[in-house]
């Protein structure tokens, strides 16, 4: 075991941890924001929206994330430069980076998995509570905002921690599209120093620590939600 | 646009490559799944009936494997496995060999899936009402007979949903083997796409193949579940 490379590569590793966390936070927040309507239309929406949302979930959950990522990165990535107004737009510096495609792919993936979970959560809110809300004269939008969504969120909360860890475990795929996040940094160290195990063991330890932190964070959040048992 | 008539021609030209890739994806997944289930069964038995040290060891195995990214594990175990094997061979005075990528992929993927299978099967075995196992003991059944006649058929209804998820995850995670350079569907697709620059066409085709594998598997597992649930009260 030889960790003499460590001080020299520390900035890159810290940058890697930052990118990993950034990818995680972006995909979780945008993914969850997409998952709510995807779950909702499967429960109450018009039939064509139901089909669309269910189809989206099936496709996302039935194909490997690696293929989705490569489809976006290589497919969109080779398609965008052919369109002049995209090349000239202010977004181009972002659209050129692997990071954008990784964040997009992870967001869509989380939306697909979580959309199916949210559908179940919306369905398991007791009917009587919704009827009571309507009986109070709440508009459909108020019912959703005050009763349906908060109750559904409380139902998914215990599974959300697990889903977050799954999402963390998906982030190393970004390294295959040139994003030097945590795993990518270890790969870079391996390339430069010809050390195979030390960098891999180091990132393994960091991932374990991150997993532990996520578990603790969700345990804390769950304790904040009052629940009658 | 993305799909032109030329796309179909391209796909027709590269059909063999893609289908070979799909075949090797299925082969890797299937063997890794069987290996993982065997590991999982042994692990579940160890967790339920083993001594303190075996239980501790298995806890480390399932916890560490399940909390690390699959990509990291596959890369790490791939190098570690081939390296250790070669060192052992050299220590015994043999020459180092080049390890077959297929076998390495199966063993590595199976080892990772074994951790998930351990938990699925442990849960299923522990869900069997204790009285049934005690009754089998009271009849004087040997442990093996008890496993074959009572535990296995009684645990399957609880285990099938988890096993179905595990199989779908195995087929999808087998794509990660592409990263260590073994040519299955994902890598074959990347090569075909890179060679022709028709990225959309080929990655969509690959996604479709994976989707078909998933949907057919779901249907088969559904049938299997109704079969193992025969004689049980309906859910809901």
Beta fraction of the residues of chain B?
A: under 5%
Percentage of residues in DSSP E strands of chain A? under 5%
Inertia-based shape of chain B = flat
Provide the domain count of chain B.
1
Global morphology of chain A: globular
Number of helices of chain A: 10
The CATH topology of the domain at 22-178 in chain A turns out to be MetI-like fold
Order of helices and strands of chain A: HHHHHHHHHH
List low-pLDDT spans of chain B: none
The CATH class designation of the domain at 22-178 in chain A is Mainly Alpha
Number of strands of chain B: 0
* CATH architectural group of the domain at 22-178 in chain A: Orthogonal Bundle
Query: Can you say what the CATH homologous superfamily of the domain at 22-178 in chain A is?
Result: MetI-like
Written account of the structure:
The complex is a heterodimer of chains A (229) and B (236). Chain A is mostly helical. Chain A contains ten helices and no strands. Chain A has a domain of 157 residues: MetI-like (MetI-like fold, Orthogonal Bundle), CATH 1.10.3720.10. Chain A starts with 5 loop residues before the first helix and ends in a 5-residue tail after the last helix. Chain B is 81% helix and 0% strand. In chain B, helix 2 crosses helix 5, helix 3 crosses helix 5 and helix 4 crosses helix 5. Chain B has 236 residues and is an all-alpha fold. Chain B has a single domain, classed as MetI-like fold (Orthogonal Bundle). The relative contact order of chain B is 0.15. The chains are: A mainly alpha (229), B mainly alpha (236). At the A-B interface, helix 2, helix 3, helix 8 and helix 10 of A face helix 4, helix 7, helix 8 and helix 9 of B.
């Amino acid at each position: 075991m030889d960790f003499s490379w460590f001080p020299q590569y520390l900035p890159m590793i810290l940058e890697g941890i930052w990118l990993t966390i950034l990818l995680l936070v972006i995909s979780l927040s945008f993914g969850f924001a997409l998952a709510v309507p995807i779950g909702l239309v499967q429960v109450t929406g018009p039939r064509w929206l139901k089909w669309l949302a269910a189809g989206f979930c099936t496709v996302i959950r039935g194909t490997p994330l690696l293929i989705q990522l490569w489809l976006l990165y290589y497919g969109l990535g080779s398609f965008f430069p052919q369109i002049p107004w995209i090349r000239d737009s202010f977004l181009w510096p972002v659209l050129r980076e692997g990071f954008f495609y990784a964040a997009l792919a992870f967001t869509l993936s989380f939306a697909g998995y979580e959309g199916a979970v949210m559908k179940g959560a919306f369905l398991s809110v007791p009917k009587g509570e919704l009827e009571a809300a309507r009986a109070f004269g709440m508009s459909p939008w108020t019912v959703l905002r005050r009763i349906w969504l908060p109750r559904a969120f409380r139902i998914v909360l215990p599974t959300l921690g697990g889903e977050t860890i799954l999402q963390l475990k998906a982030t190393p795929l970004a390294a295959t599209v040139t994003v030097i996040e945590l795993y990518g940094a270890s790969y870079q160290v391996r390339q430069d120093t010809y050390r195979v195990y030390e960098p891999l063991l180091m990132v393994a330890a960091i991932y374990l620590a991150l997993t532990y932190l996520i578990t603790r964070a969700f345990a804390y959040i769950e304790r904040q939600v009052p629940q009658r048992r | 646009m993305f799909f032109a008539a030329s796309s179909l021609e391209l796909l027709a030209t590269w059909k063999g490559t893609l289908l070979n890739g799909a075949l090797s994806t299925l082969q890797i997944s299937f063997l890794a799944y069987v290996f993982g289930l065997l590991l999982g069964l042994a692990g579940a038995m160890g967790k339920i009936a083993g001594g303190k040290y075996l239980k501790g060891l298995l806890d480390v195995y399932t916890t560490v494997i399940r909390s690390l990214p699959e990509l990291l594990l596959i890369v790490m175990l791939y190098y570690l496995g081939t390296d250790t094997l070669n060192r052992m061979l050299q220590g015994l005075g043999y020459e180092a060999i080049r390890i077959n990528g297929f076998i390495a992929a199966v063993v590595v993927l199976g080892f990772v899936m074994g951790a998930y299978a351990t938990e699925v099967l442990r849960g299923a075995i522990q869900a069997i009402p204790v009285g049934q196992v005690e009754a089998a003991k009271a009849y004087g059944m040997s442990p093996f007979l008890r496993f074959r006649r009572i535990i296995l058929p009684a645990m399957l209804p609880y285990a099938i949903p988890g096993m179905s998820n595990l199989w779908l995850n195995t087929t999808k995670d087998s794509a990660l083997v592409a990263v260590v350079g073994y040519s299955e569907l994902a890598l074959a697709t990347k090569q075909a796409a890179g060679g022709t620059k028709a990225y959309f066409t080929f990655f969509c085709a690959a996604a479709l193949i994976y989707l078909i594998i998933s949907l057919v598997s779901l249907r088969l597992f559904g049938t299997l579940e109704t079969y193992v649930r025969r004689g049980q009260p309906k859910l809901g």
